[in-house]
């Protein structure tokens, strides 16, 4: 198994306005895109990979001359890997409103000449899927072999099966849910309030003040990171280990190793992630609820889906629990859809979908091999 090597992102400009779920629209926007592998003759081997909260279009490979630039799902995508770029043409798209190159709150609003800031329109999973469809149009791809995503990316994959059922043959939804629970929404709200109440936030227009609400971003990341890990992993990695041999008896200083770890994660996150983007993306998570338009009946919701499905969950993922994945599976079976389900007994919590679990990767490799065997006129 190898790496796709050095890669170069593309910046695609779209001048046609994109209608948004909120009733607003956005024009003259850019989306950052990366591709790996080659599109076969009949364009039947394309796989769209949708990213989660703090990821981007940079799925695999590295950037030339840049240290520690490995793509966020590099262990999964590449020659000989579960999503084999010797067989598939893989597409990564940075979502609208993100802070990794696609048009977002940090960019200039062409209508005002001022940085968008808090004026950037609210975006939803539906909007991202519509924008992704335009990228496929640009590439001349009428139907995807598959759409793959984990966590928030899994929500996008599910939404693809509902909004563009004829444009995909397989949906692979990993560590995701058909909607957020009240507890999940609560965690997101606490994280948002940490940002909004930071004195440096300035109602979302902190760019004009030359500051960043780093304190709020740090706390938001710490809250989020706690929910991504299982109790077992935290206990195994840190337990009650102290930073010093003796207690300092301080309410302000770091005493436990877990505190040091969370502060490190928060500090790192605050250096590269945009506060307004965090607000936008967590709200998109909150809003995702396709069953709402169908009387909260998930079976009715998936009646329009045409593709085949693979749903994967992890036993210790309490943020997107296996029970939520089983809701999706039941709804698909109610509609007699072709669905495979894997529940991986892994100790890592929600972060398991990013890690090197051989059982998990084995499931994905077997499924993608199955897809490759379906190609007509391709190289598989």
From TrEMBL:
Gene3D superfamilies, per database record: 1.10.1740.110, alpha/beta hydrolase
Gene Ontology terms: biological process: homoserine metabolic process; methionine biosynthetic process
Catalytic activity: L-homoserine + succinyl-CoA = O-succinyl-L-homoserine + CoA
Domain of life: Bacteria
Keywords: Acyltransferase, Amino-acid biosynthesis, Cytoplasm, Methionine biosynthesis, Transferase
MF-aspect GO terms: homoserine O-acetyltransferase activity; homoserine O-succinyltransferase activity
Residues forming the catalytic site: 151, 317, 350
Subcellular location: Cytoplasm
Pathway note: Amino-acid biosynthesis; L-methionine biosynthesis via de novo pathway; O-succinyl-L-homoserine from L-homoserine: step 1/1
EC numbers: 2.3.1.46
Matches recorded under InterPro entries: AB_hydrolase_1, AB_hydrolase_fold, HAT_MetX-like
Family named by the database record: Belongs to the AB hydrolase superfamily. MetX family.
UniProt xrefs under NCBIfam families: homoserO_Ac_trn, PRK00175.1
Oligomer and partners: Homodimer.
Function: Transfers a succinyl group from succinyl-CoA to L-homoserine, forming succinyl-L-homoserine.
Protein name per its UniProtKB record: Homoserine O-succinyltransferase
Origin species: Roseateles depolymerans
